[in-house]
Write a structure and sequence with these properties.
39% helix, globular, alpha/beta, 79 residues
Length: 79
């Protein structure tokens, strides 16, 4: 099975992990929408306050980090 076929299957079955770079006004909306849709979502930002807000919101499937390495397991990355 090709990588593209595997990715399509992961997306269809909600097994894909989504990474979002920058969780400001637009990135926040993208991260929350993908998490609410059932995808494990990791947001990355350099703003510690923003990361803390995300992590204390207790939104299922959503976490945020100051460490860009947390995005390495993502199947799809939104910039």
């Amino acid at each position: 099975m090709s990588y593209l076929s595997q990715l399509k299957t992961k997306i269809r079955t909600k097994q894909a992990q989504i990474g979002v770079i920058g969780i400001g006004y637009v990135g926040s909306a993208i991260a929350q929408a993908t998490a609410h849709a059932g995808y494990k979502t990791v947001g990355y930002d350099i703003n510690p306050h923003r990361v803390e807000e995300f992590n204390t919101a207790n939104i299922q499937n959503l976490s945020a980090s100051l460490e860009p390495g947390r995005l390495s397991d993502s199947d799809v990355i939104a910039i």
